[in-house]
Amino acid sequence: MGLSGRGQRKNSPFSLGQGKVMRHLKKGRSLHRKSSHRKALLCNLAVSILTNGRVRTTEAKAKEVRGLVDRIITWGKRGDLHARRLAARQVRSRTLVKKVFDELAPRYRDRPGGYTRIMKIGFRHGDNAPVVLMELVDHPAPEK
Fold first, then answer.
1. How far is residue 135's CA from residue 77's CA, in Å, rounded to a whole number?
2. For residue 27, what are the contacts with CB-CB under 8 A and spacing of at least 6?
3. Which CATH number is associated with domain 35-136?
4. What is the pLDDT of residues 12-22, one digit of tens each?
């Protein structure tokens, strides 16, 4: 029972492909995409939420984009030029940045965070992925 070629014991949990390894410095979900695709997906999802007020998506994507939407609205509450440029870097739309700073930020002025709500609505046909409705907290109810 010698070493496995990497300086580790064969039965060590740190040898390749065996056991569980601690996830130090592995923040966020990969969503099975490369980093550039994942960043574009999350930015586009954040734009959809801020534009329409709600979006139907998978649970993992909703939980991942929640922080980005909260961060953008918090920048809107700060209201300075640097915060406006940070928000513009994420959403890439002048009209949406204006909406965040002029409409959404005053609406959430007294709220210390948690600007989004995630409600489970079932499972997607085909792959049985959990589907949620993600919306801004004070978004009006849909008309019937």
1. 19
2. none
3. 3.90.1030.10
4. 555 555 668 88
